[in-house]
Amino acid sequence: MNTAATTTAYLPDDAVAIPEPQVIKGRLSNTQYFKYWRTCAAMGPIFLTAFIICWGVLGHNIPPIPADHTADQMAEFFRTHYNEVRAGMAGAMLFGVLYLPWTLSITKVMEWINPLENNIATTLQMWGGGLTVVPLVTSSVFWLTAAYRPDVLSPVTLQMLYDQGWLLIDMFYAITTIPMVAIGVAGLTDKRAAPLFPRWACWFSIWAGISFLFELLMPFFKSGLFARQGWLNFWVEFIVWFAYIVIITYYVFKAIPRLEKERTAALAKA
Amino acid sequence: MPHPENDMTQNPPDLATEEAVSILRGRHLPGVLVFIIADMAVFCMLFVGFMVDRMKDVALFNNSAIALDVRFGVANTLILVTSGLFVVLAVNAARAGLRKTTRGWLLLSFLVGAGFGVSKIVEYSIKISSGITMQTNPFYMYYYALTGAHFLHFVGGMIALAVLWVLAGREATVSRNTFNLIESGALYWHMVDLLWLFLFPMLYLLVPR
């Protein structure tokens, strides 16, 4: 590929306003300014991989224990697999917080979409993404509690703890919808000829966030597509969420070198 | 300073030219289509799920479906198709730069479309007052879930039509950006139509009457 042409393509077109001084932080070199951005962005795939292994495989949540299983079946599961679940949930609680730095990397890129406009979408994305850690970690506590003393807890109590974990992680979906919609809406207003987040990715993000609405039906069913183990409310929704993480991470990594060049050009203009 | 070619609000485009339309499509439409295709993919999976579950208990599904009032289904189909036609006319008017005509068709589309909302609320009320909920049996689970999800899409479309009507009212002529939004909104509204055209025969007409 022609380097000069590529460099030109990455320079901001005139439709992109020069950011405010506090966004540019003009006294910082690019190395200082963009320090940790890539590290934070890398936390997304690390979170995803670790979460699938810890929460999904070790925790036996991919797929979940069906909601129509009896309390005795649930008790038998915990009394057999308690050590795996303990390890899985401890890992899920550790790696679950990586969603926070990953969210921040998106926030930093979003600040450059429309630097002269207000930062409502960016702030919503940061808070929504950061608070997504809460259901991820808190639901893991319920499963960890069940695995802590499964020999003395009654089957009904174990069933309640497992149900509570799933009801929390599924029904708190709206906190994740907020950043997904915020990224999409902000990205669609990007005036660059080649937006930082392509329009298809923005629309996908909005759609994926809204598609979580099907989780509203989850508490009403113990079997079928809307149950926690159902093909729609588990397989489709979780795959959509995982895909969103991969897609957004990819475009954050693509945006950072572009912004490095844009910032250099913006500083030269300022 | 914004680039003159990118500043859509200050440079109303010649929307009648193929070039302008081509630029707009290139910049915006593929994104909206991702939303629409993803949405329709999930609905297609739901349709397959319905048919698979129906095959497991055809008698139950037929006995439940026969209790639905086809007149509501027919009325809703006519309402949505008519409203869709008015949106097409709004797009044509917008392409010709006719702001007032565009707003007129958008308003008409909204008003006719509102009939769908009224009809659905009446239909839901009758069913619920008869004690039929989504937990009555698998057929009604699909009935409420499918028509409920479709209803939420309908509400989103109505909001979009209202927003487009307001946006078109703020400009002296139809700007390039507003035209693009109207065309995107029209595509979405047609998706709402199209989904209903699958839902209606699947839920109301599949049963031999």
From TrEMBL, chain A:
<feature type="transmembrane region" description="Helical">
    <location>
        <begin position="233"/>
        <end position="253"/>
    </location>
</feature>
<protein>
    <recommendedName>
        <fullName>DUF998 domain-containing protein</fullName>
    </recommendedName>
</protein>
<feature type="transmembrane region" description="Helical">
    <location>
        <begin position="166"/>
        <end position="188"/>
    </location>
</feature>
<keyword id="KW-0812">Transmembrane</keyword>
<feature type="transmembrane region" description="Helical">
    <location>
        <begin position="127"/>
        <end position="146"/>
    </location>
</feature>
<keyword id="KW-0472">Membrane</keyword>
<keyword id="KW-1133">Transmembrane helix</keyword>
<feature type="transmembrane region" description="Helical">
    <location>
        <begin position="200"/>
        <end position="221"/>
    </location>
</feature>
<feature type="transmembrane region" description="Helical">
    <location>
        <begin position="36"/>
        <end position="58"/>
    </location>
</feature>
<feature type="transmembrane region" description="Helical">
    <location>
        <begin position="87"/>
        <end position="106"/>
    </location>
</feature>
